[in-house]
Amino acid sequence: MSARSHITTHVLDSVTGRPAAAISVVLEHHAHGSWREVATAQTDADGRVSELGPEAVSAGRYRITFDTGSYFAARGQATFYPHVTIVFELADESAHYHVPLLLSPFAYSTYRGS
Hints:
The chain is mainly beta. It contains one helix and nine strands, in the order E-E-E-E-E-E-H-E-E-E. It has a single domain (about 5-105), classed as Sandwich (Immunoglobulin-like).
């Protein structure tokens, strides 16, 4: 069994109250004036990505981009946000960072999870 990634996420479709499966996710790190891809993944049947990048990453600025347009298109539903990008600061290299996304076609919300 592998250890959990330093950064994880999950997506909940707040309209249906169900996990949002099969959303493509990209994790990037900002350093030296540009963004560098760290990992890519797809949400599982429970809307989670528990292996998003390595077990440890350095402190700094990161962003997670969710391909929400493809998720809604597969359901025949229009959306105002074809991508959702969350930028955050990882300050404590010993802490786990969980970045959830609560999603609907015309709104989204996020918070620092545990």
